[in-house]
Amino acid sequence: MAEEDNFDTGAMFEDPEGFYEPEPEPTFAEHHMLSGQKVRVRLVGSHPLYGNLLWNAGRTSSHYIEERASTLIEGKDVLEIGAAAGVPSIVSAILGARTSVMTDYPDLDLVGNMRYNASLAAPQIANPGSLHVDGYKWGNPVEPLLAYLPAGATGFDVLIMADVVYSHREHPNLIKTMRETMKRTKEAVALVIFTPYEPWLLPKTEKFFPLAEESGFKVTKVFEKLMDEVLFENDPGDERLRRTVFGYEIRWADEELN
């Protein structure tokens, strides 16, 4: 190339300063356990998979398992699906779970933030090595999750599924993951807890439960809890529904255990 053909583009292809909005900084939130302990977690600054919020269903799940810790959590193996900040997983580890596995979509920011929260909570956990973090896409092979179980264990005693059934197209994958990770015992349970943040879609969300029944489970609705405030103040739709947390216990149908 001739010397005169060389030219300096300068900053022609660089974005001008301030062209993009700066990424929001991570924030912190606290979950207050019924025991008086506080679980502090970092939230992703902004994330399309909602790692930037501490959801009502996560808080409510944590209180639910704390109230039943002696029979539900202590010495048990727990798997959280769609953990976000991971409060229920951390609370389970604090309450004496033998194994607590915190999972969410295998995104670097989300998984990295979960690892940070696990390390932040370590001083509160009698056995910090009981708490594990991994990325997991619903419906994928579950062998990496089962590998966290102690030798001889055949599945998880408790699955925590807080605010995951809003993703209607993922219902079959969630059911598949439940079937492949939940221990086949009468006592094993999946806790499905959610708020209809888009109330007009509640009928589609509730289709998860008959699908679970068709797939070998029995479903029991265990509570409706009205929160003091909505999580998203300016959202449309029935405010009472947007403040309500619904709780279900899903266990193996009897014929699946015979």
From TrEMBL:
- Protein's cellular compartments: Cytoplasm
The record lists S-adenosyl-L-methionine as bound by: 55, 82-84, 104, 138, 162
Keywords from the UniProt entry: Cytoplasm, Methyltransferase, S-adenosyl-L-methionine, Transferase
Quote the cellular component terms of the Gene Ontology held in the record.
cytoplasm
Q: What is its EC number?
A: 2.1.1.-
Q: Which GO terms describe its biological process?
A: methylation
Q: Where is this region: Disordered?
A: 1-24
Chief location bin: cytoplasm
Biased-composition ranges for Acidic residues? 14-24
Query: What does the record give under GO molecular function?
Result: N-terminal protein N-methyltransferase activity; protein-lysine N-methyltransferase activity
InterPro entries listed in its UniProt record = EFM7, Methyltransf_16, SAM-dependent_MTases_sf
Q: Which family does it belong to?
A: Belongs to the class I-like SAM-binding methyltransferase superfamily. EFM7 family.
Annotated function = S-adenosyl-L-methionine-dependent protein methyltransferase that trimethylates the N-terminal glycine 'Gly-2' of elongation factor 1-alpha, before also catalyzing the mono- and dimethylation of 'Lys-3'.
Among HAMAP family, the record links this protein to:
Methyltr_EFM7
Name the record gives this protein: Protein N-terminal and lysine N-methyltransferase EFM7
Q: What is the lineage of its organism?
A: Eukaryota, Fungi, Dikarya, Ascomycota, Pezizomycotina
